[in-house]
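INTERNAL AUDIT FORM
Audit reference: QA-55
Scope: verify that the stored structure record matches its stored sequence.
Auditor: D.O.
Record contents follow.
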Amino acid sequence: MSIARLSNAQRVVVKIGSALLTDAETGKLNRPWLQAFVEDVATMRARGQEMLIVSSGAIALGRRALKLAPGKMKLEESQAAAAVGQIGLAHAFQEILSAYGRSCAQILLTLDDTEERRRYLNARSTLNTLLKFGAVPVINENDTVATSEIRYGDNDRLAARVASMISADCLVLLSDVDGLYTAPPSQPGAKHLPEVAEITPEIEAMAGDAASEMSRGGMKTKLAAAKIAVESGCNMAIGNGRVAHPLRALEDGARCTWFTARQTPVAARKRWISGGLKTLGTLVIDDGAVRALGQGRSLLPAGVTAVEGKFERGDAVSIRDAEGREIARGLVTYSSDDAERLKGHNSGEIETLLGFSGRAEMIHRDDLVLKS
């Protein structure tokens, strides 16, 4: 089951925690482990899988570099440690990935980047473009600017948000445990759960808290991540990352827990656009655009005849034909003011009309749902 879900996935997000990347005694980077992990990533990338890494460890590495005392840090100390540690972490990933002929990209996100619609679309577009060019994005929470009020607080949920954002079909959380148990693994009678089809209150009651000072996440945050992942159509695994070549181990059948999604990422996203968002405006389109949408194409500015309502880039809008029938809904690429300027024009005129080089589509087909 692990083999099929991981090796057959097209787009994989892997989260690695501080406890795996750093030595608890010295605070130094565990370079041999990172080398073996990156080799797994390179192997998967070489067979055509798109790979994204969500990595903790910046604060732990920066803490050592700044010689901060053990124990809980103040927010500003954590931010300073993150600023120092992120440089070393990014350099290590870049150096090792480049040895396998892979480009490495650093992406730092805050909660607002996945919650605020325009920033969400920008982040999603950047990640998709990096994957298109074969790069391996390495993502972390932007601890340097995030505050306690707006931060994720753990990279498990950040990884799940990223997986949802880019419609990944597999998320792997590498930890110091090999999955979910009915009770703490050290307790007699605790049973390992190889698969969870539904996250019930009984399943949630099995979760515990973070086990180490180096890690903010625990099983509770992993279950929260699982909820986000499966709702977006992404299968998720919790596996033991302490072994060398942890992804290879999962493919070879190592013990883990799989949380199974009931639908594909595309179906989940389409459902969200169709029924989960309030439309803030309307685009009226001509017959040619109606036919193009029916053939699975994007909506181009040339096919828009009228713009109604007030909306911003990334908002949901209704798409109607000349008779007023709603034929689709989607996330619009331009604000209502810009859409008004672009309607009826070819995509090649966008820069002239707006003064900047925008996207060719008014609504990309991935962000559009036809109404039945």
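Auditor finding: record pair retrieved intact. DSSP finds 15 helices and 15 strands in the chain.
Action required: none
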